[in-house]
Automatic annotation (TrEMBL):
Keywords: Oxidoreductase. InterPro entries: Aromatic_CoA_ox/epox (IPR052703), Benzoyl_CoA_Oase_BoxB (IPR017635), Ferritin-like_SF (IPR009078), RNR-like (IPR012348). It comes from Nonomuraea zeae. GO terms for molecular function: oxidoreductase activity. Transmembrane segments: none annotated. The keyword Oxidoreductase applies. One of its GO terms (cellular component) is cytosol. One of its GO terms (biological process) is phenylacetate catabolic process. The keyword Oxidoreductase applies. This is Benzoyl-CoA 2,3-epoxidase subunit BoxB. Its EC number is 1.14.13.208.
Length: 469
């Protein structure tokens, strides 16, 4: 399915044939461009070496060229339609998927789309000043690639709101540009998207942990019986993979540089050498991982059970599951705190679907930690990084209101206050990391606190001029 770039709004949804919808989106477009101008990247650039979709098939979705950021062709791209696709789960299992929304599910689907849509511009807002302190042109290019794709993901959700939800959908599309990350008066819907991303270590952690949450949320929506939503999310997942690559390899390179400095100078005190100490890296892991766990919501949820039963939102890789895909008789084991200890409770699987998805996410996050520990081992270091306990630093769900150590012990609030600076970034830690954030814009050069990448972009070398300032 090719994408028509001659259109004002590039798309593969035959927008030219729906004049009312086209006019509505063309009316929204100037507001989007104004938002991008006001809340997008602050660093002025001439052009950036960006990837742009030219078709949604396996061979055509990535074309590379230098593009001026304001001229990037945001658009509406859905994966190819499978005319034989049927609902894989819930009470409508086996029926054909929906091309239009059943009236009884309209409000719930709109809410799911709005929440997903709200995260996309939020991350651009969180990252808007990072270009001012980029450690290399390679990293600066990756930041802008993530930003323009988050903008396109916003377009994907706005298309659905305009095309299928009438006036209320148009109102919600407008509101997506009115909320702002960290605003006291009109914040973003989910807490993690109101946190600061003040430095590049935070950016790497965000793209590793928080964008990985996005992968799993999109994966559940890809299973939706509402076929346009499913096809939209399937394409978004291709772009989301790059965001996680940026995070994975970014943390790789921070750990690599710290390990190099430690070995070369035979000292764990890499602060005086301009590196980021492993204990600070661990604190950033603890924070970003725990905040991202909260994005999955409460371990038990009747709303999510209803979404599943109705066919609105499935499980991760639903069709690979070896069960009845209905779950009315199934049970799941979910951790919680009882009597000052973490115990496992046996609960109906339908109400524990958030915990199920979180479990998939946790296993996936562990692969990155294994990578980072291999880097340390390869440099002859005994130190290891880890994921803290699922109950550590949690504000949402079964562990909210409890205080757990990274190894999963329940402690009193006074003990938490006394020890939290050993586990979470302190003001001094953040100030030190920010002090390292000095921009490096010369091709082939890189900041001293991070190692260069092993490979460049699209076969280009590291010293390629990825961004023209």
């Amino acid at each position: 399915m090719s994408i028509d770039y001659s259109e004002r709004i590039p798309n593969n949804v035959n927008l030219a044939e729906d004049r009312r919808l086209r006019r509505a989106l063309e009316s929204w477009q100037p507001r989007f461009l104004q938002w991008w101008s006001e809340m997008g990247p602050t660093l002025p650039t001439q052009d950036v070496y960006l990837r742009t979709a030219v078709a949604v098939g396996r061979e055509g979705w990535a074309h590379f060229d230098h593009v001026a950021l304001p001229d990037y062709r945001w658009g509406i791209f859905l994966s190819e339609r499978n005319t034989d696709r049927r609902i894989a789960y819930g009470e409508h299992k086996g029926q054909p998927v929906w091309q239009q929304i059943p009236g009884e599910y309209r409000a719930e689907l709109q809410r799911l789309i709005v929440i997903q849509g709200d995260t996309e511009p939020a991350s651009v807002e969180q990252q808007r000043r990072l270009g001012l302190t980029a450690p290399s042109l390679y990293d600066l290019r990756n930041l802008f690639q993530v930003n323009v794709e988050e903008g396109r993901h916003l377009w994907a959700m706005v298309y659905l709101l305009h095309a299928y939800f009438g006036r209320t959908g148009r109102d919600e599309a407008e509101a997506l540009l009115l909320r702002n990350s960290g605003s006291e008066d009109s914040p973003r819907i989910l807490g993690a998207f109101n946190e600061e991303t003040p430095d590049w270590l935070s950016f790497y952690m965000f793209t590793y942990f928080t964008d990985r949450d996005g992968k799993y949320q999109l994966g559940t929506l890809k299973e939706s019986a509402f076929d346009p939503l499913s096809r939209t999310c399937e394409f978004m997942l291709k772009e989301e993979a790059h965001h996680m690559f940026v995070g994975t390899t970014g943390v790789d390179r921070v750990v690599e540089r710290t390990a190099q400095l430690t070995r070369e100078h035979d000292s764990d005190d890499v602060r005086k050498l301009g590196g980021i100490p492993l204990d600070v890296i661990q604190k950033y892991i603890n924070f970003h991982y725990s905040v991202s766990l909260d994005l999955f919501g409460s371990e038990t949820s009747t709303n999510v059970a209803n979404y599943f039963t109705a066919g609105l939102k499935g499980r991760w890789q639903e069709e690979r599951r070896k069960d009845d895909h209905v779950l009315t008789e199934a049970f799941a084991v979910v951790p919680r705190v009882e009597g000052g200890q973490v115990v496992e409770a046996r609960l109906p699987a339908l109400t524990a679907l958030n915990a199920d998805l979180r479990g998939e996410y946790i296993a996936d996050c562990g692969t990155g930690v294994n990578r980072w520990n291999r880097i340390l081992t390869d440099h002859g270091l005994d130190a290891t990084l880890y994921l803290p306990h699922v109950g550590f630093n949690r504000q949402v769900g079964a562990f909210a209101g409890h205080h757990l150590t990274p190894d999963g012990r329940v402690i009193e609030e006074r003990d938490w206050r006394a020890s939290r600076d050993r586990w979470l970034p302190t003001a001094e830690d953040k100030a030190y990391v920010r002090a390292l954030m000095r921009p490096v814009y010369e091709p082939g050069k890189i900041a001293a606190w991070v190692a260069p990448p092993r490979n460049g972009i699209n076969g280009r070398p590291f010293d390629y001029e990825y961004v023209h300032l």
